[in-house]
Each structure stands twice: as structure tokens, then as C-alpha cells.
Amino acid sequence: MYKEERHTTRRFRWLGLVVFAALALSIFIGRYPTPPWMPPSYLWRDDLARRLVLHLRLPRLLTAFLMGVTLAATGACMQIIFRNPLVCSGFLGVSQGAAFGAAFSIIFLSHSPLVIEICATGFALSALVVSYLLAWNIRYGDWVLRLVLAGIVSSALFSSGVGVLKYLADPLSELPDIVFWLMGGLWAVTWRDLLYILPVVVGGLAVLFSMRWRLNLLALRDDTAFSLGAAPARERALVLAASVAATAVVVAVGGVVGWIGLIVPHIARRIVGADAQKLIPASMLIGGVFSLLCDNLARTLRAGEIPLGIVTSLIGAFIFIAMFARNDLRVGK
Amino acid sequence: MNPGPMISLAGVHFSYDGPDQPVLRDLSLAIPRAAVTAILGPNGSGKTTLLSLILGMLSPQEGTIRIDGRIQADYSRRAMSRLMGLVPQEESYPFGFSVLEYVLLGRAPYLGLLERPGPVDVQAAWKALETAGLAALSQRPIPSLSGGERQLATVARALAQEPSVLLLDEPTAHLDLSNRRCVLDVIRALSDGGVTAVLTTHDPNAAAAVADHVVLMRQGQLVAAGPVEMVFNAANLSATYGLPVEVVRVHGRPIVLAL
Asked: CB neighbours of A178 closer than 8 A, spacing ≥ 6?
């Protein structure tokens, strides 16, 4: 109907193409047989290459992609429902809660990935509950501001808890595991991990994706949203629950991987505009590609793995600086 | 069509923190259909609270509010949002929506939780944009608009709801003279087209410029209510603002001067 709609459609086609290319090429990127590239013919010539792709690279690629999709989409949702361009998915204590749960499991329960994941998910959700309870009891500002404050406090509580656990940890057998987990990474991902996150992530993202236009209402003032027939508190809680559940399982598997949930929604906004109807799908696609490319770097650049969280933070910070310096961060009044 | 008043309040009592600090006390008034009614009073007289009560965001501790003859609380949220639109005092326009994207949000009362606007909704949004005189700016990001244009965009968003009643909270508070004229003209035109417009203002001259009826309030109580010609006099306005005022007429329109 209008020029802008056609532009957006074309941009989504391009994004889809980029996603497909990134996924396909990533299968052949890696340190086997020689970094950084495996000729495709190895897939039918070399049995080891085939098994490597099937059992290690594929689940890892898909998890990296899904992680980026989740963090970016939930980050965009959080920015919308908190009307704040600087919050992201791990905000409200979720990231620090998951970190605490993982460290707790490594020291007191088990090093087994499944136990760590369940423990991290459980503490991520309890950090959210702490944030909510705190927000109920703060007597300052409106609901959004109270939740933001409560999120800061809850994150601080759990990160000091992580500090205590690191102090208690055995420096030889436990501390390296905790530190590596805190910096985030997908080096140990298997099909089982992917299966662990898949149902929650797909469920959570389905809620966010199908509410993508409605999300816009939650960015308005509460009285305006009310006058438009929305139930702001209830709908915000629904979006929050879907976002946090998906974020919690992803963080539980991949560790604390920062910046994706903050920077990708801003990139997406520059490409398709601020309307959540387009912003959410665009964030998903860009987040997936961003995370995938960062993970490719993390596993290919050096013989030993570079923690993914370091790569995303480094690249994310540079993009952020570039966007701020060009004054392109489209944040309305 | 029900010939009675569009909105009527009977013995409405409301307080935020306990009965000893009432914001509205024993308020009874009627707001006529298809006219512009200005609720006028000093800051803190309960004007915005009154709008929230009419909208149903707050419920009165005592008394009844009727909209189109029916008790406010009997309306479903969806029915109410199709009947009544709100232009709040300050809207938040996060993340640089385009004007059209923003106005389309006014279609929410007609769309379910998981639905997205279709061609019918886009058409309604365009109509609202044209009524507000913003069609040429439809693709501009809201943060790039002037204060007056932004206020008109908010009005257009409420118009996309196709409401019978439009509530406007201080619609001219931050506007310069020409922008104020623009916004008031749109409100006037809407009312001539059959919409019941209710606006609050602390500025008696803004009220005089557009309203058919005025409701004068002071400290949560009614001072006077009725057609402008009957109510807009020095005695009533002095009682409303608690200071001596004089009403002079310029080109037949009342202008209020504080003495």
C-alpha cells in the first residue's frame, strides 16, 4: 500500500537471506581440519568431519542461533514494557540469579550439566520473584520505576552471592568452572541441551511473537493503554513471564552472555522502525545472526575457546559506541 | 438515541487515601451530548481524577456515574474503549514510532490480544489523521514533530477508536497560541460532528474559546455548571479561583482577567 511497507518487506527478505546464509556457512566454519574453513566435500569424504558436524557443530550452531533469537526478542520486549531503552533480558536479576544457581550447583550439588541447568533456571526465576516482591514494597515512583529499582537491587544481591560462592569455591576444581560459566559459552552444548531449552524457548517466543503488535500498547502510559481497552498490569506480567522463562533457560545453558539483548533491538529499530510488530521479528533474526557470528569467532579464532560473553560484549560495546556517536539511537521523547 | 445527558454523576465521592482526605466531594453534574464541556478549576481541584472516574480507571467510593444512561461499572472494558477515547496530559511516545504507527494503536479496542491491524484499521487511522490535519505527516517519527502536532497526533490516536466521547486532559497546557488554536479547532469540529468532548483546563480563556458548557470546580466540589453564557461570570470565577476576577468581552467572547 505504501512505499514504506514495501521497503520493510524487502528488508525482511534480506534478513531472511542473511540468516539462511549464516546458518549454512557456519556449518563449515571451525578449526577442523584447518582453521577457519572446512571444504564441504569433507562431509562425504571424511567420517570424522561428518560426526563432528552432526554431534558437535549442529547442536551448537542451533543453540547459538536460538540463544541470540531469545535474548534479542526478550530484550526488545523488556525495553518496550519498561519504556526504557537501556534495559535488557537479564535485567530484573535473571542473569545474576542464573549465575548464582550455576555456581551453587557447581560447589554444593553437581558439575553435571543437567543439574547446573535446572539449578540456574530455578534461581533465575527466584531472582525475578525477589524483584517483584521488592517492587511491591518500594514506596517510590510508579510501577515501572519500582521494578527497575527492584531489578537493580535483586541483581546486586545475587551477584554478591556469586562473589561469596567464588570465594568459597575450590580454586582448582570448582573456580575455573564457575568463571568459565560466568563468561558464557557454548563449548559444551549437545543435542540434549538444545532439547532442554527448546520447549520453553519456543513457548515463550510464541507468546511474544503473537502479541507483537499488542506490545506497543504497553509502551504507552498506563492510563492511555487502559483507555484502549488493555489491562496493562496483567498483559505486562504475561509478557514478562514469557520473556523471563525463555531467558532463564537460555542463560542456564549458555551462561551469562551480555549485550545481545541490549544492542540488537537498537540495531533492529534502525532497520525496520520502532513498531513492535516489525521490531520483534527483526530482533529475532538479527539476534540469531549476531549470536551465531560471535560464537563462530569464539570457537575459531584461537585453539582454546574464547568465552562467548567476552566476544559479544566486545563487539556489542563497539556497535553501541558507533551508534551513540552517530546519534542514531532512535529513542523517542 | 437516549436523549438524556451523555455522562452524569450523582453524589460522587472519591478519595485516594482514606475518607478524611476526599479529592471529590458529593459531586453531581451532567455533561450534555455532542457539545464541548470544559471542566475548569485551579490546579489540584480534582479535574484529572474526575476524568479517571469517568473513564473507569478509578471507581467512586460513593455515588454513581452513568455513561449514556448506563452505570459505568456495567460496561465491559472493550465496550468502554470503543465508546470513549482519552487524550492524556502528557503521552509517552517511546522509541520514535511514526505518526501512522502510533495512530493505529487507537484500533486496539477492535482487535483481540493476538490480532494485528488490517486494512479496515489502516483506513480508520487515515480518517483520524485527516480529521486531525496530520495526513501529510503520517510517516514522520513522532519525536520530530512540534508540540502542537504531537498533541494532534494524540487526538488522532484517540479518534481512531471512533469514540462517541473524547476526554482530553489539559489539551492546550503546553502549547503556543497558534498550536492552541489548531487543537481547539479540531475539538470544535469534532463536537460539531456529534462527538461529546470533555476537556479539563486551568485556563478560563481556553475554556471560553471552545466550550459550550463549563463545569467550575474548587477543591473537589462543584462551584457551578451550565452553558458558558450563564455560568461564566465574575462571581462564579472568583469563587473558583479564590481571587477577584473580571470578565470582559472582546468580539463577543468572554476574556477573564485576574485583578
From this structure: A102, A103, A106, A107, A162, A165, A166, A169
Domains and their CATH numbers in chain B: 7-258 (3.40.50.300)
Give the tens place of pLDDT for each residue, A261-285.
Answer: 999 999 999 889 899 999 999 999 9
Residue A120: what pLDDT? Answer: 87
Task: Read off the pLDDT of each residue in B178-201 and give the average, rounded to a whole number.
Answer: 91
Using the predicted structure, report yes or no on whether residue A332 has a pLDDT greater than 80: no
B36-40 and B213-218: which strand pairing? parallel
* Residues from chain A contacting residue B97 (CB–CB below 8 Å): 216, 273-275, 332
Phi-psi region of B13 (alpha: psi -120 to 50; beta: other; left: phi over 0): beta
Structural contact between residues A97 and A125, judged by C-beta atoms closer than 8 angstroms = yes
pLDDT tens digit string along A181-209? 888 888 888 898 899 889 999 999 999 99
Q: B42 at the A interface (CB within 8 A)?
A: no
Q: Which three cell numbers stand for residue B63?
A: 455515588
C-alpha cell of A233?
A: 498490569
Interchain CB distance below 8 Å, B139 and A4: yes
Q: What is the interface pTM, i.e. ipTM, of the complex?
A: 0.90
CA-based nearest distance B91→chain A, Å: 6
Using the Cβ of B161 and the Cβ atoms of chain A, whether some distance falls under 8 Å is answered with yes
Query: How far apart are the C-alpha atoms of A214 and B146, rounded to whole Å?
Result: 27
Q: Is B60 on the interface with A (CB under 8 A)?
A: no
Q: Nearest chain B residue to A217 by CA: give it.
A: B105
- Which domains does chain A possess? 59-325 (1.10.3470.10)
Closest residue by Cα to residue A65 from A317, A260, A269: A260
Asked whether the whole model's pTM tops 0.95, one would answer: no
Please tell me the distance from the alpha carbon of residue B172 to that of residue B20, in angstroms, as a whole number: 33
Determine contact: A6 vs chain B, CB below 8 A.
Answer: no
CB spacing of B105 vs A220 below 8 angstroms: yes
Quick check: B19 pLDDT over 80? no
Mean pLDDT of B163-174: 91
Residue pair B166/B188 in contact by the 8 Å Cβ criterion:
no
Q: Do B114 and A214 touch (CB under 8 A)?
A: yes
Asked if B133 has any chain A CB less than 8 Å from its own CB, the reply is no
Range list of H helices, chain A: 3-26, 42-45, 47-52, 58-81, 94-104, 113-137, 143-168, 175-183, 191-210, 215-218, 222-227, 232-254, 260-272, 276-300, 308-325
